[in-house]
Amino acid sequence: MYAFNFERPSTTVEAAKAAATGGAKVLAGGQTLLASMKLRLANPEKLVDLGGVAELAGIRRDGNSLVIGAMTRHADVSVNPEVLSTLPALADLASHIGDKQVRAMGTLGGSLANNDPAACYPSAVLALNATVHTTQRKIAADDFFQGMFSTALKDGELITAVSFPIAKKAAYMKFRQPASRFALVGVFVAQTDAGVRVAVTGGGNGVYRHKGLEDALTRSFTPESAAAVKIDASTLSSDLHASAAYRANLVGVMAQRAVAKALS
Question: Rounded to an integer, what distance in angstroms lies between the CA atom of residue 144 and that of residue 130?
Fold first, then answer.
């Protein structure tokens, strides 16, 4: 690990100011950044630790949405009574991220800002049509994710919270890569008054919506409808863990299971 300066601000304003300086990296849960630094794959001149900004953590109900602070830990989302009662699919997703240490340290905002192509939280944000709140603006889910490890965030812009609309029915199913526990393929389905949204993670260069599944499930929200949709493998990844064809099959299977779970 290379040498670096360390700052631990206590307010969002202080954090945003520190993050805007050249060579600074923001430390949320640290599950990706610290590992990269230990391997000398990342060399920030300064770390800005958000752990001391109390206002960035917490969960509250706001009308027909749940607002979750960016520094809220996965473990806290998984057991929060408000999440369990209004968006149990989100609590279930959080309860199966990584292992106990990852869930105890990892944060919602850190996961979204990193935008790992196999991360779980991006699928929930995209399928639920959530809004990402930052220190500068509000970003719709459809505009936020821009490919592998890439988002709409500008330099120095910090995620402060995410507002999740409460769906009529929702569920997430993933097929785990056994070593990393990331999603080899994960599918989040959400039924709303405006129709069904389906987000897939782990299949390619980043989370994406599947229009074919959305159209079929909007017409009939049943596992059989999902099963009838042909999943194109041409845009999916192929690596030592799974071929593109295998991932395409998993997308269909996980979609069917997610719908069945949402209906149960």
Answer: 10
Q: Is the dihedral of CA 227, 231, 237, 239 positive or negative?
A: positive
Q: Give the confidence band of 23 by pLDDT, cuts at 50, 70, 90.
A: confident
Mean pLDDT rounded to a whole number for the chain: 95
pLDDT tens column, 230-244: 999 999 999 999 999
pLDDT given at position 2: 85
Q: List alpha helices for the chain, DSSP H.
A: 12-19, 33-38, 74-79, 81-86, 88-95, 100-105, 108-114, 121-127, 141-144, 211-219, 223-227, 244-263
For the chain, domains (ranges, CATH) are 5-165 (3.30.465.10), 169-263 (3.30.390.50)
| 131: enclosing H helix or E strand | strand 131-134
